[in-house]
Amino acid sequence: MIALFRTLKCLICISLLATSLSVFAEVPTIRVGWTIPAEEAKYWMMKRPEAFPDLNKKYRIEWVQFQGTAPMVQAMLSEALDCSSQAPLSLAQGAVESDLQGYILAQHVSEKPGAFSVYWAVKEDSPIKQITDLKGKTVGVNVYGSGVYGGMATLLKNNGIDPERDIRLVETGFPGSEAALRTGRVDAGVFVQPFATRAEAKGGIRKIFELSDLMPNTVHIIEVCKKSWVDAHPELATYYTRDLVNAMHMALKQREETIKVVSEVTRAPATALEPYLLKANDFAHDPNMRPDFSAIQTMFDMYHALGMLKKPLKVDQFRHDRIVAPLK
Amino acid sequence: MSIKSVMSALVIPRAIWHNASAFLSLGVLLLLWEGLAHYINIDGFPLASEALLQVPVILREREALISIGASLWRMFLGGALALMIAVPVGLTMGRNQRTAQALSPVLTLIYPIPKAALMPIIMLWFGIGDLSKVLVIFVGVSLPLIYHSYHGAQSVDEKLLWSAMAMGMKPVERLFRVVLPSALPEVLLGCRVGLAMALIVMIASEMIARQSGAGELLFNALDMALYTDVYAIIIILAGIGFLLDWVFERIRSRLVHWAEIRQDAVVPRGRA
To answer: What architecture is domain A119-213?
Structure first.
């Protein structure tokens, strides 16, 4: 027993030593939060680091994956992350509720005319024909209080339906939405890629409204870094933003390779990605990753009008005068 | 025919029956799963056969093996830390009433808290790296270890301790040379409970912030609605749990065979 304890002590000491040695590595490290899906630029940096001359030479990245953007706000507030992917609503709530200060350095995906828009669908044989028919029905949403919910709630309001009283809301998440719709747990389910393509291929569903009915350029995922970190490490923030843009260029130019990269990250088979990834039925990817500050402001105003933000918020507070995509 | 030979003849069929019934129950479960999945026919509930076929596919992937290995390493570290700290604490509590009185309320408060719920707090203090995950595993494993060590130490034969004192042993020496060996069957029982707990907490600790790990595999598959992968990973985790428990049981029975012999000797007499 004593020998066993000694062995355990040795193993723990070795592992702690190994951990502490990594702390002394010379190359500065950026702690970056990410999520799936739709962050192709980050996936490229993760899986093809050799394609980026500065990565692992001038800076390193410690990648940490989260489920959704809201926990990443908490991680940034608790100094556990320097940068992370954010939805405009998560960022806004972090800023209003907890005084999160950050810069929007790049934009991953958004909507634009001709590209994919988050939509709600019903079963083919459903009596629901349009958004106004949803009164008294059960409607699915990814997460209650999410940005997608905000868009849906505004659309419902604009069509005379009170989202709080006139519908029953069910949180299905995006992955579970199709099953919820087909099994009758919801009358209308929410769809994003890749689940939309999968459901469409099976058939039996019909789109009734989409977020582009509200605004044509909804921003879905942006890259946000902590203000204190960017101010203290402007050169690192510059390297990182520049490489993100380079990664987006690579992702868009080399679609076949991007499918492989995304498949490696998400474990989704390439055959599931092929029908939509970086095609017209995918979210819009700006090759320059330039944040659409005007659209983000519109979204902040909408969230405030809905009561999802306690006070109005100006997007300019998240704008860095120099470090923002595209960086030359 | 002697009673001994009749008994040994009975023991073999019993062992065979034991193994056969285990396989039978597993087979029934898989058949039920297969039938139900056919009947329900939704993506979220794949066929048992599909999930089973996906197991070797995942195990052939280098990255998947690295991820599972990373989780097991964190589980080992958390478990080892718990073993080094929780066992002495539990033994001390069992032999020292003041320590027990001081620590019991705290442990009683912590015991029912789902350990995964501690993860956000631990993350705030220790960051989102391996340390937080190891610590949450440590907490999860420590509580059953303390509890069982405490009860094991309480049931130590006082005469043994008197003899040790008479031989001039100091309290710490008595703890490790008399109390620990006597309490070993109970401590190892705590280890077995802790092992299952470690596996549960190991996965839960990767739910919020994920780096390399089995939880990352599982939750990514869920995020992408790859349900066959989800069930296959759960089967792999169940297999790991079964294997660890089996190995541990072999070690435990070797270490405390004397206690089991004593128990075996008692049971037939009781029945008779």
So the answer is: 3-Layer(aba) Sandwich (3.40)
